[in-house]
Design a protein that fits this description.
This protein is of the alpha+beta class and 472 residues long. Helices cover 42% and strands 20% of the residues. The chain has a 7-stranded antiparallel β-sheet with strand order 8-9-12-16-15-14-13, with helices on both faces. Strands 1-3-2 form a 3-stranded mixed β-sheet. Strands 6-7-17 form a 3-stranded antiparallel β-sheet. Mean pLDDT is 78; it is low at 1-26, 158-170 and 285-304.
């Protein structure tokens, strides 16, 4: 069937508009100095991997299904991606997680998750738009699959990987076999400072061209760090401050064009925020664990006693995709073989706040010219941890250690425990950081945690776990 003249004219206009949009995106990316890093994946494989990870995340996360809230966030997200400085032809989906924690994350291929607490903490629509635009920046820069590609290269030579590039199925299958995943708790969601800086640049660009105040994104990050330290620990673990964030954004804005009177708020945002604030409370990580200190030195909350958190002398082994470790048989694994994990007694964790146990995760530091790379990378890690928990303080000096033949750093710290005494006073906590560098430059680190009064009795167990730790 032949198209009439009007149809042909419309198709020509649409084709020219698409071509112009792509050309503008290429020009903008060049202007900003943005270029996605090395990647073994195609864009379609980004989408496939993201779809699979999103299907798992949707089962694991407490998604909010309120049509007004979700519809608003989705509409806002789809408006923003029209202004990306890089090609953004992804099947974008925007979802709201029903938790008070302030965070957001992006899966490859355009799947964005925004926590309810982020919307409630934002002072206006421009700040929320900045968070979403920042996350879309991770997608269009393909940070997730770039990290996965680096991890794959570290585990297999190019001669093996080269044969897989022609088939998306075999590449994704190999990714799973290597224990690399994009789940909601994956270490691949922990961005490097350089990735954060790139996402900041894109977020600023998108805000400016979408007609918002381009300062809003950096302002939001600064405000939540100051006002909500207990609710942003995971946020700043996933989004380490690239340094001088406000200054960097302010320096970027004049490059984007003439000054504009960008809008900050909308009636729709205020309606949605008020709707959320009026809803029943959502779960929140980091809430104090109400436990009382007994005269005999034990701790209880109801039937909880000190015996509930003390480790067994018998150990068993956990095989992660990146390491192997032995741990007390009466403690449990929270997480899986492809994610950051917590090993702790069930009674030692409440609302995701760890009072007794160990957190094991990865950290991708920025490249540095310093000769003592491990020292500098550990400093970056400590800065990142302190951004998430400003109460952390280093005790003394860090020490060089060996972990199964690998060079590592040992750092003692103190902070606030999620536990309280009988008077409602927060207990002091002792934290022991052990960081080991992988061949790809990423740090694998363990943070051993206990109230200060119990730490020394747990130290032999923690030391046994370090001795058992083997990187893969």
């Amino acid at each position: 069937m032949m198209a009439d003249k009007k149809t042909l004219s419309f198709l020509v206009v649409v084709g020219l508009s698409v071509a112009a949009g792509v050309a503008l995106a290429v020009q903008a990316a060049s202007q900003l100095g943005l270029k996605p890093g090395f990647n073994l994946f195609s864009k379609q494989q980004d989408i496939t991997a993201g779809q699979q990870a999103a299907a798992q995340a949707d089962k694991q996360l407490p998604l909010l299904n309120d049509p007004q809230v979700v519809g608003y966030v989705s509409n806002l997200g789809h408006r923003l991606v029209q202004f990306e400085p890089l090609p953004a032809d992804y099947p974008w989906q925007f979802k709201v997680v029903n938790t008070k924690d302030i965070n957001a994350f992006a899966l490859p291929g355009g799947f964005i998750y925004v926590n309810r607490g982020t919307i409630e903490a934002a002072q206006n629509e421009a700040e929320l738009a900045g968070v979403i635009a920042h996350e879309t920046g991770h997608v269009v820069m393909r940070h997730g699959t770039h990290q996965a590609s680096q991890m794959m290269l570290a585990q297999a030579p190019l001669s093996i990987l080269g044969g897989m590039l022609g088939s998306s199925g075999s590449l994704l299958g190999q990714l799973t076999q290597m224990g690399i995943g994009f789940g909601a708790n994956s270490v691949l969601l922990h961005n490097s400072r350089s990735a954060e800086s790139q996402a900041d640049t894109i977020g600023t660009y998108v805000l400016y061209h979408a007609g918002y105040d381009p300062h809003a994104m950096a302002q939001f990050f600064q405000i939540i760090a100051q006002k909500y330290p207990s609710r942003t620990a995971q946020f700043f673990s996933d989004h380490p401050n690239p340094g001088n964030r406000i200054q960097a954004v302010n320096a970027e804005i004049p490059k984007l064009g003439p000054p504009n009177n960008g809008r900050t708020d909308s009636p729709e945002f205020e309606a949605v925020k008020n709707r959320l604030l009026g809803m029943a409370g959502a779960p929140q990580s980091g809430q104090p664990v109400q436990q009382q200190q007994q005269p005999n030195g034990g701790q209880s909350s109801g039937t909880l006693t000190r015996a509930d958190v003390m480790p067994s002398r018998n150990f068993k082994t956990f095989d992660h995709s990146a390491f192997r470790i032995s741990y007390p048989e009466n403690w449990e694994i929270l997480g899986d073989a492809n994610s950051a994990i917590t090993i702790a007694p069930r009674a030692g964790v409440s609302q995701n706040a760890v009072a007794y146990g160990v957190i094991i995760s990865g950290f991708q530091p920025d490249a540095t010219q310093d000769t003592d790379t491990l020292y500098n990378d550990t400093r970056q890690l400590l800065d990142s941890l302190r951004q998430g928990n400003p109460n952390l303080k280093v005790i003394g000096r860090d020490e060089n250690i060996r972990v199964n033949g690998k060079a590592g750093k040992s750092v003692e710290m103190t902070g606030q425990s999620p536990l309280q005494d009988s008077n409602g006073q927060v207990l002091r906590e002792h934290d022991w950081l052990v960081a080991v560098e992988r061949s790809d430059g990423e740090l694998l680190y363990m943070v051993f945690i206990a109230p200060e009064k119990d730490f020394q009795s747990l130290r032999p167990t923690f030391e046994n776990m370090v001795r058992s730790f083997q990187m893969k």
